[in-house]
Amino acid sequence: xxxxxVVTGLGVIAPGGDDTEAFxxxxxxxxxxxxxxxxxxxxRYRTRLAGQVHxxxxxxxxxxxxxVQTDLFTQFGLAASDMALxxxxxxxxxxxxxxxxxxxxxxxxxTEFGQREIERLWRNGPDHVGAYQSIAWFYAATTGQVSIxxxxxxxxxxxxxxQAGALDAVGQAxxxxxxxxxxxxxxxxxxxxxxxxxxxxxxxxxxxxxxDPARAYRPFAADTAGFVPGEGGAIxxxxxxxxxAERGARQYGTVAGYAATFxxxxxxxxxxxxRRAAELALxxxxxxxxxxxxxxxxxxxxxxxxxxxxxxxxxxxxxxxxPVTAPKTxxxxxxxxxxxxxxxxxxxxxxxxxVPPTVGIGRxxxxxxxxxxxxxxxxxxxxxxxxxxxxxxxxxxxxxxxxPDAAHARAPQPSEGADHxxxxxx
Amino acid sequence: xxVGRPRRTPVxxxxxxxxxxxxxxxxxxxxxxxxxxxxxxxxxxxxxxxxRSRIAAECEFDPRQEGLSPREIRRMDRVAQFAVVCTRDxxxxxxxxxxxxxPERIGVSIGSAVGCxxxxxxxxxxxxxxxxxxxxxxxxxxxxxxxxxxPSTIAAETAGVCGAEGPVALISTGCTAGLDAVGHAVRLxxxxxxxxxxxxxxxxxxxPITSACFDAIKATSPDNDDxxxxxxxxxxxxxxxxxxxxxxxxxxxRLDDARRRSARVYAEIIGxxxxxxxxxxxxxxxxxxxxxxxxxAAMDLARxxxxxxxxxxxxxxxxxxxxxxxxxxxxxxxGARAYEVPVSSVKSMIGHSLGAIGxxxxxxxxLALEQxxxxxxxxxxxxxxxxxxxxxxxxxxxxxxxxxxxxGSGFGGFQSAxxxxxGGTT
Lengths: 426, 426
Description:
heterodimer, A: Peroxisomal Thiolase, Chain A, domain 1, Peroxisomal Thiolase, Chain A, domain 1, 13 helices, globular, B: alpha/beta, ten-stranded mixed beta sheet, three-stranded mixed beta sheet, 14 helices, 15 strands
């Protein structure tokens, strides 16, 4: 036990790729995976664009027995967990059963499954609610199913902090490893693109309204008009560094720092908590702002929230002091899955020495004073990354990941999907 | 208590707020429990005719009388109202001068299994016109619809009440959430992420959809002709749990800090652990193996042994399988001591409020320690040969005890155990 917690496996189900490398190629190609909602007819809703996962066949990915008793958010979590464990090459049988942990973020639970069952109840009566509603709808569904699937008998957790939740889950997974677990599955997924889910999201007043994918979700632009919702997410395998080294595991990086803060009451006149979360995570990692090679921003796409984030970053790093990116401009905001996906992208940036871009925002607002990685990936030796996330209602979280020792590092993958000529060097 | 290796910093419970069925505030709650009175009645919160189980333990809760403003009442689901009221009570009870604590050093950890389910359902019924329109009409959405979709708003509302700007999270591990949320808070205090944690859990699940989903799996009691006697943990004639609602919020501080300000210490939290059965989302194996492991792990952390435990506040839900499972877990983890130590379930009186009950039971356990009184298991008339421990039937018992074990078990296979010690004994 070293207290050092490393990432050894990644699994992604996201718009633009239902496996990790496919997703990464899409990001490096700078391709937007945002389009018109085709899960249902979205005409009557002011938001009709979303980042959807296409071609995901639940029965094939999780088995028909599990598929009928789970919502899509759990199916994404199960598929991503399978992928992450395979990627980590971790033989669970070799890990003592009570040292296998699961802690996953959930934002809105089994939204579509829940809508269907409430509909049955009110349309047809209480006898028509299915037996699986009780285990598919609640926020713990993914953690429970993942635990069962992989025989994880150690501590299990479920954290809800909307879009910030996945970073909190990773921070909690690190605690569990430090408290004696050997390996943990962590991260988050979300799938709330059903009519009721979308309607509720619209009520929060932060979604882009319109039909032009090129105008949708442009964080840090002066005329930003909200964000596009998305679905999917990522699951990561984290392990104690010594245990990982002992089994010869290849690492993506170290979860070096984590912190969470909450915003002051709106009437307090106090500064929002995002900068402090970043500072605390850096301090926790034993790193200074100058060590950070790139920041994966929360990038709310809401003018005031963008201002707050830009102010936090310029205060911490000086204006234009650090490359900042928001690849979520290609996927939309994935709620519980969003920050987990950013963490995966951050670790792949470390592996491959390339930063995925922020796409299609046009000209950033002048008052932001950020060095945004715009439209094309940027070649960069990435050793330290700061990932930021904010959850609706005042939640802030930050994670710092650092590069693994060369001896344990993953080999860089040639980015075949990316057009090399388009990769800008600075 | 055994003196051994140094254990983790003990954490003190210095304030308490409870909203529970059958009595107002902490005082009413404790009076009900020690009188052995039951608060299970016919459901009045909705028309339950046509449902298999038509009984529940409801709180006599008037948000206006509890001081909530008209806007707070409009904005918050009943579950958040419970949490906010308990938080105000707990802060007042703690005697803590909040103005003297930097907001950054105050954190929140709130548990809930099903979040804002009442409003989620009510709004859906309107939007879908009674379940008739899958493509729900957004024109009927209330402005706070998204607050109900993400349970994290319960923690955010709580943070607003106490001005917390430290780590804030909603923990949603189903029916162990109330224990896990407090366990999480203890961990944050021990690692120094906060100096004061407002921790607890809330649930307001008495709604058609929650009732229907437990009906569908026959988990709740159908003994509608005897509401007051329907929750019968450990009794041979038990037929399932009775749904409850409520909340408990605790003010937690490191013991040294509590002593420095001469705070009243209800009890100390000296150990917490959780494990998962990785077996079934709702089913339990009769051997109680993983719960026993959680109990052993908690005892290890607290550096105590079975003989130190003076009372077990059981999960005791009143389902056939739970009470057997739990009895086996106590025998497995405590050996001969299991037969000597009194065990009781307050769910016999206040029902099973899902995610909230763990925190409510921690409050009951702390009061039991402080008052040296064990609350009874009401309605236990006919012993079940498979449940052969001392369940303190019908009447409360004066009992000298230094340490209390409180356990929980929930959907997803989660098993949690917490150890509390009498204030001033460590």
